[in-house]
Amino acid sequence: MTIKVFDTQEVQDLLKAATNIEGAEGNPRVKQIINRLLADLFKAIDDLDITPDEIWAGVNYLNQLGRDGEAALLAAGLGLEKLLDIRMDAEDKQAGIEGGTPRTIEGPLYVAGAPVKDGLCKMDLDPDEDAGPLVIRGTVADLDGKPVANAIVECWHANSKGFYSHFDPTGAQTDFNLRGAVRTDAQGKYEFRTLMPVGYGCPPHGATQQLLNGLGRHGNRPAHVHFFVTSEQHRKLTTQFNIEGDPLIWDDFAYATREDLIPPVTEKTGGAGLGLKEDAYKEIVFDFVLTGLVQGQDNQLVNRLRASAKA
Ligand code: MBD
Ligand code: FE
Prior knowledge:
By secondary structure, this protein is α/β, with parallel strands linked by helices. The protein is built from six helices and 13 strands.
């Protein structure tokens, strides 16, 4: 079938009416964006001859996506969140900003409100038989290598099942298990004592995995640890590192892996003296480099709906 109606007066009038593009009421930005997206959709329906059955499958899919609460998960899986990083990287490059720790996506599983500790935070509140101890430590510095004191390093990651507290489908974890926040000391140092995470997998029966199945894709991430690093005189850094050696490092369904975000994992002993659950432990040293404010502003603050809890 080669039905083309997009360029007809009737469809162009419909597009104008549906988005009230020539009217005075409404939010101009909403109208601009919806007009463009709807036009692109109308055009795609012509070009690909998308059938009524396919349209209704798509509409019902959106309902299911909402019921599953997975719209932000799908955004990560379709590379939409990565695209925002690519755009921010390009924006920084254009502005001549370089040299900081690379950004990578926040993902949908942050929970605000972790209590801030001075210098050191023990993140594992719940026992996890299958996870060995992990120390993550390092410094926060500026582009000149000067330590940043009083920076807040927030950290969150999964347990040995790949589940995050607050979002754990088994309900097994207490609030803020494997979620911590540390204020850096005068030398810019921070340290987290925690347990080794395992990679995340999308809920197997959720709407995100359903769409990924249609694309012939898996919905898994390599083991990783998330960070926000904030400081009054610097731009907020949103990043993650991967656990070296994970086979999915370059096959992340959310495209968050970057060359500089795969620190070495070192085998250590002496964990007993640190209060770890075993004497043998793994250590990752990861130093953050923050970039300066832009004309006195932090242009890295992203507004999005985030879960929060009280500790
Ligand atoms: C995660 O843990 C995550 O970091 C992202 C981006 C998506 C789903 C789960
Ligand atoms: Fe994650």
